[in-house]
Write a structure and sequence with these properties.
A: 2 strands; B: mainly alpha; two-stranded antiparallel sheet
Amino acid sequence: MRLEHAIKPESSMSTLLWLRFRAFSAPIFLLTVWLLLIIATAIYRPDFISYQTLLAVVFTMSIVGVLAIGQALVTISGGFLDLSQPSCLIFASFVSVKLSEAGMPFIIVILGAIITGVIVGAINALIIVLARLNPIIVTLATNFIGLAVLFLLFRAAEVPIGSEIHTFGRAYFLGLPATWWPMLILIFIVGLLIHQTRYGRQTIAVGGNLYAAQTRGISLKKTRFLIFSIAGGFVGFAAILFCSASGPFNSASANILQLNVIAAVILAGISLEGGRGHLWMLFLSVGLLSTVPTSLVFFGLSSDAQAIFQGLILVLAVTFDGYRSRKITL
Amino acid sequence: MTNTAANSDNSKNFINTDRPWKEMLSGSVASITLTFVIVIALGLILVGPRFLSFSNVSIMGNYLIIPLVVGAFAGFALLSGVVDLSIGSMVGFSTALMALLLNQDWGIMSAGLVTLVFCMFFGGINAICIVGFGAGPIPTTLGMLTALRGITWLICGPSYSITAFNLKLFTIVNHRFLGIPSFFLVGLLLTLIITLIVSKSRVGRHIKAVGGDEQAAERAGISVKGVRVLALILSALGAGIGGIIMVAQITSATRMAGFGLEFEVYAALMIGGYSILRGGVGNPLGGALGILVVGALGNVIDLTASSSYYTNIIVGILLLSAVYLDRLRGGDSYD
């Protein structure tokens, strides 16, 4: 039964063309939607095309983009979703604020944030791997606990004005915010590593076909532990971008980012079933999602309407993803 | 991720959950009953006899009405194997719409009906995406959660809240029977009725069958899609009712009404033996006990004057242990 479905009697030429088209259809689709959004807003309000708009979009992109790399790694390796990102981000931001208040050099502050993220990711991973529990429930619970602990820890924090991290958040490089470039480089490098190296492909294999990966001798526990820790490290680095550029933040400040990050991963074609998708696509999906709020402002819609649009985009993206795979996954 | 161990456990669960009372002593409800007794004992030790006084029970009862009703209906969706995270904002949307309609001199019945119809409409959109197109329930309803919050904000408008005092509604909801809010008793009664529906009726067995083993249910001639659509719409309906009760209780709608309620309710339901990732397990009695446990814990922490954020930490740890216990019994293994 299965075999008959798998091998369809199609002419090889048209199959090849179809595969070629499918490989490029997703980026073209995303790019088209992005361009249409920009053109539509520019026609309605010609002043949309400006340096200020570019800055606003690029600024939003950087934090969501780095968080999305972490989320995408978890998703592509079959870990479904990491819902603990908001608490992890705030925790790492808090650590970097404390470190820079203590007058540490910038590199130590960055390392401190990344290590904090890795530790939080490793705690999640330990619970997931040792107790053999589903990552969604584990990260839901640790986020719940983490946000409460953070609230008890501090009410509001802000990077000290004049510190290196504060200057970095307001610096520009080649006309664009300095926080944007690390995101771009990271998406490129991680995409290259995960699709071109042996370890990267093993990670994707674990997400795609668990049993096949196991019979090939890939250690599931080790892969999962590493992926969740590395994903935590990206959240830690995102914290540097987050706290350097934002003003005072509290324990709940990162909750709104969660939805955008998940939407970006799914829009990029990284299926929640795992093992499918390409990380470079994140650049397009994060770009599109970061343009939406700015363009809604130009259409004269309030921030209340932005929530509606963000929610609807996620619903549409998941529906499209589900329609492609026609299967209830979670 | 289902393996054979989980499947065999499902069939075991089918037999057990047909006798909810017996399961209180032996099955998955046993641990939550024990937890409930421990929390009550803890309350009596830490707070003293006033923990179980009429005034304190009625304060708890007043607070627990909404989670009980919302949780009872959300349980249908969990049992049928889909999870509806949008209930928190659905409660907020329902309060906002109800308050808006009452403010414009609508009658209670007509305003309530229109509100519930709108809630079921949004539940229907969830159902179309999840059941019709096969979208993942968690991200879909997470999107709906945000969209409905946005709609709530739009309805509340620039003043951030709508005042809607309706004496009749206020009297109904705040009616007391022997010093305890009648609606709390109604909530408990509703739980019992839903427990009976789930365990004894044909519809209930169909819902559990769909959640337990989709393919087997399909082969047995049960409409899997129909059951899931019904369950998602019921879950939205429950949240709608919860929102109307909230308007009656606090006589206004605010931007943040029902914010975070979904996590509170699902954490409590999972502590009570439901699973948000696997259908067919849990029972409404256990779910209600889970909500009572979380409510009582929060009350103990409030009365002993610590920050209410300690409740979240304890609830999170309880949640992890409950899921781990469920795994040891042969549930949801992730490997």
